[in-house]
Amino acid sequence: MSSSSAFDGVDPEIRALRASSFGGQAAAYAEERPGYPDAALLWALEPVSGRVPLRVLDLGAGTGKLTEALLRHVADVVAVEPDAAMLAQLRHRLPGVRALAGTAERIPLEDGSVDAILVGQALHWFDLDRAVPEMARVLAPGGVLAGLWNLDDDRVPWVKGLKEAAASTVSFKQWRRGSIPLEGPHFRVVEHAEFAHGQRRTAESMAATIATHSHVLTLSEAERAELLARVLDYLRSTPETAHGEFELPITTVTVRALLG
Ligand SMILES: C[S@@+](CC[C@H](N)C(=O)[O-])C[C@H]1O[C@@H](n2cnc3c(N)ncnc32)[C@H](O)[C@@H]1O
């Protein structure tokens, strides 16, 4: 297993910069990013769903998008997040949740203390060589690790066009589906599933969402302004998105792995 295998050919400095960029727009992130569909969470948790109590860790929790979705199904959720601004948003929005500063490579929890670890849009930022054994350490026997990604569905032509309009100088393929290497001495039975999802957007709120993406956050101010103007032009001149609200089609790609 190699820590770079989800990002072959990507400059590690750009990757590190992008991984730590989200706090710069933490409030906008909380406002604009989509949540997660229940079907994806339930599928991810299915291998441990009979456990009482069911203890779940939201790792790389950001502003708490996935935490909030988990709370619809699970009472015992702990959130861990390294970025102080993202963590502050999470604590503000979900004051009742236990929320800790920490990373996937150094999780501030006891051995075997959770039944499931769910990771929203963040597994690809982890140093897997260190994070995989660390995640295995905090899971109880038979526990499950799941990664979820909300991907704009670019099988739809106007979404493909939007992605092209929003490409930046630090864009890279976010991950090749199925390329996060979880199989190994710690995890077995790795399974994938996809769930249809969506988000109501306008041209303006869609541009605001794109402004919270790491390939935009890490640009210079001038480059960012140019990219967002290009995106707005595209959305305002594309029939599907030019007139008020539209539905952004999203596929929630989910992978789950059982502790061996
Ligand atoms: C795209 S955001 C996703 C946030 C949240 N999970 C969600 O679904 O909205 C990626 C998050 O991963 C966090 N992150 C980056 N590197 C990390 C690491 N090594 N360990 C834990 N979290 C990390 C970032 O600080 C950021 O909050």
Question: Can you give a write-up of this model?
Answer:
- The protein is α/β, with parallel strands linked by helices.
- The chain has a single domain (5-150, 174-199, 247-259), classed as Vaccinia Virus protein VP39 (Rossmann fold), CATH 3.40.50.
- Helix content is 34%, strand content 25%.
- The chain has ten helices and seven strands.
- The protein has helices at residues 12-19, 26-32, 38-45, 65-70, 84-93, 128-138, 157-165, 203-210, 214-217, 221-237; strands at residues 55-59, 76-81, 98-101, 114-120, 139-152, 187-201, 246-259.
- The two termini are 16 Å apart.
- S-adenosylmethionine is lined by residues 19, 22, 33, 59-62, 65-66, 81-83, 86, 103-105, 120-122, 125-126.
- Belongs to the methyltransferase superfamily.
- InterPro entries: Diverse_substrate_MTase, Methyltransf_11, rRNA_Ade_Mease_Trfase_CS, SAM-dependent_MTases_sf.
- This is Methyltransferase domain-containing protein.
Short description:
The protein has 10 helices and 7 strands.
Task: Provide keyphrases for this structure.
260 residues; alpha/beta; Rossmann fold; 7-stranded mixed β-sheet; 10 helices; 34% helix; 25% strand; disordered N terminus; binds S-adenosylmethionine; transferase
Question: Number of helix segments?
Answer: 10
| CATH architecture annotation name | 3-Layer(aba) Sandwich
Question: What's the structural domain tally?
Answer: 1
Distance between the termini: 16 Å
The total of beta strands comes to 7
The name of the CATH superfamily reads Vaccinia Virus protein VP39
